[in-house]
Predict the 3D structure of the following.
Amino acid sequence: MNATTVSPFGTVKKAARIAGFLYFMYILTPILAQLVAHLGFGDAADIVNIMRTNEELFRIGFILNLLSALLFLLAAWALYVLLKPVNKNLALLFLLLNLVGVAVECFSFLNLFAGFLLTSSQSTLIGFHPDQLQTLARFFVSLYKHGHMIAQLFFAAWLFPLGYLVFKSGYLPKFLGIVLMVECFGWLLYPLQFFLFPSTVIATLSSAIGFIGEFSLTLWLLIMGAKEHNLPQSQSVEV
């Protein structure tokens, strides 16, 4: 097998661009969900109000969020294929961390949809006053927000082995690897401040760091790809 071949994508450059495309689509879909249904992380009562007044838009936004989780996992797998030749164990580590984060995120989406069902015009819960249903809906939306923050612990942790492999790869810029490793610690501030020190300043800083690191990697992979790099035959990727 040619050392520059990365199965199942072909060349290193092609694998990099596929990973970049999947990562870009992952970034784009939650932005679309926010624009369509405003399913951000504002007040739970505001999200419940959207559920009550615009069921169709909520459903579209919900599907976009689910699609985003799937795309994130696929992007992580593509990066695993790309970076496995550098260190198989570390590549598997960041893939597993991403997988756990996506699983927690999807479970939090289930809580979000439970809140929607409580407010839906098709709700069949008998014996509950409408105000009680609204309270329960806000509770489940709150669980959704907390679940999302738990997932961020894993999404932060995966960035360090990812950044290290980017740095050591030889076919991606070292500065991207450094930025990703720094982003790991910056992004950890996001869930920690949510649970321990509520502060929009820290959360905003973490979001900015995350945007710079991951979006830079995405653009580089999508536009520049990766340099073809001769690896030892024993390190060739077999998927």
Observations:
- The radius of gyration is 20 Å.
